[in-house]
Amino acid sequence: LALVFAGCEEKVTCLHYNETDGVLEISKAAELHYVYEVAKKYKETRESFQTDNGRMIAFEDACLRLINDIEIKESWTPIPFFFGYSIKSFDGNNYKITFKDVEYILPATDDGHPANPYFMHYGLFESLSDCEVRNLLLEGEISVRNKDIVYDYNIGIGAVAGELTNGTVENCISRVKISFEDEKGCGKVEIGGITGGFSNISNSITLTGKIVNEGDISVKGCYSVYLGGLAGTAGDKIEISGNVNLENKGNLSVEWDRMALQINNEDSYNNIGGVFGKLEVYKGPVKNIYNCGNIIVNTQDIPTTFQLGGVCGMFGKSYDGRNLIEVFGMKNSGTIKVEGKGIGKYSCVGGVIGDCNSGYFHQLLNEGKIIIPDDSNLKIGGLLGYETGLGYTSYLLSCSEDKVGDFKVFNYSQFPLFEKVCTEKHDKSQE
User: Fold this and answer.
1) What's the pTM?
2) What are the backbone angles phi and psi of residue 102, rounded to the nearest 5°?
């Protein structure tokens, strides 16, 4: 797809280099296109950034900073990524990038395979690794569709990037309305307002400051979905304690593909949460994660396995974590609604967390209604829907509360959580 920008801007062949701050400055969409061109050539030629004063800045050393609001119109091909190489930092500088009615059709080969199966990521960037993203505001609308791929594929979608590996995200807000539709019903998607997935290979992901999604996100036609207001998945060495506030204000919706579920229902595992679809951490504490967006899922009356929570669909420690994960201050005030009667026997819903393990939970708070079909076999908890029993048994502290009270605070059906009186003096501002 061609990249179309606001107005008929001239082709850019260099960026201004701010000598004082050591950053490359971006003021218009054509300069983002130049970043795209450099990234595209980098794998083959080790392309560097040309500056307006004749300097060359190595791609992996480049620090980019916005100095103006930018509008991207109608089409956008994300800035490419190659494993182990990406820019050093992207500073929004409190300016905004607006996607104006951007639509992207996933490329396919003539026989219906994904055109680039190893880099099925979509956002401002395909993916970022060991990069600092900060002070960025994103607005507008992005629509991603599969019209021609007829074989199984995986895709990550987020306003910033399809995937963020290692690095730091600080003070970022997305108001982008994101929709993904699979007309063939063969996709597995990780999708979130910021990124499809946070992951790490050797270093950690650090989330700090205020990170918020305010855009609605909808998924239609897939058979496997990992969806969260901020990220579909976040795993392993992720640091989200300290000076951090993670919040989703957008509404989330999923409608599975009826035919795909009939064929693949045994493999249709889905994690859906207001903030994170699936959150696995190596160590705690985990603090200050809030959702006030509504969540609605439709099973199309076909057996579907899902873990659904107001804050997290699934929460627990990563594979090599050795201790209970301390959690302070997860809150949901959004409505959770399940439509359709085709619900798999391992499905669960929690006002705060759908499926949990190895947690030590303080100050969980649910103020959102849970609406389910009549005669549903769902495992439901006003706070915690289900305890998988993996690793250590979890504890729910008495400082937690379900203010709605339509269901037991947690589900006793398999591995019961332990309730425990809280003796800590919590900061009331975080309750």
Assistant:
1) 0.93
2) -80, 130
**Identity of the residue numbered 274:** G
**In this predicted model, what pLDDT tens digit does every residue of 192-209 receive, in sequence order?**
999 999 987 666 888 999
Q: Is 178 buried (19+), middle (13-18) or exposed (0-12) by CB count in 10 A? A: buried
Helix/strand/coil (H/E/C) assignment for every residue in the chain: CCCCECCCCCCCCCEEEECCCCEEEECCHHHHHHHHHHHHHHHHHCCEEEECCCCEEEHHHCEEEECCCEEEECCCCCECCECCECCCEEECCCCEEEEEEEEEECCECCCCCECCHHHCEECCEEEEECCEEEEEEEEEEEEEEECCCCCCEEEEECCCEEEEECEEEEEEEEEEEEEEEECCCCEEEEEECCEEEEECCCCCEEEEEEEEECCCEEEECCCEEEEECCEEEECCCEECCCCEEEEECCCEEEECCHHHHHHHHHHCEEEEECCEEEEEECCCCEEEEEECCCEEEECCCCCEEEEEECCEEEEEECCCCCCCEEEEEEEECCCEEEECCCECCCCEEECCEEEECCEEEECCEECCCEECCCCCCCEEECCEEEECCCCCCCEEECCCEECCCCCCCECCCCCCCEEECCCCCCCHHHC
Contact 355, 389 (CB under 8 A): no
Predicted pLDDT of residue 267: 60
188 token code pair: 């597995």
Quick: pLDDT tens for 84-128.
Answer: 678 999 999 999 999 999 999 999 999 999 998 877 999 999 999
Give the C-alpha separation, 350 to 340, whole Å. 18
pLDDT of 174 over the 50 cut: yes
| Amino acid, res. 395 | Y
For residue 271 the two structure tokens come to 């994690």
- Whether the bond between 285 and the residue before it is cis, its omega within 30 degrees of 0, is yes
Report d(CA 134, CA 125) in Å as an integer.
Answer: 14
Q: What does the pLDDT look like over 363-403, one tens digit per residue?
A: 999 999 999 988 777 889 999 998 876 556 788 999 999 99
Range of weakest confidence among 8-12, 16-20, 177-181: 8-12
CA distances from 279 to 178, 231, 273 (A): 21, 9, 9
**Per-residue confidence band for 415, with pLDDT thresholds at 50, 70 and 90:** low
User: For residue 402, what are its two tokens?
Assistant: 């379900």
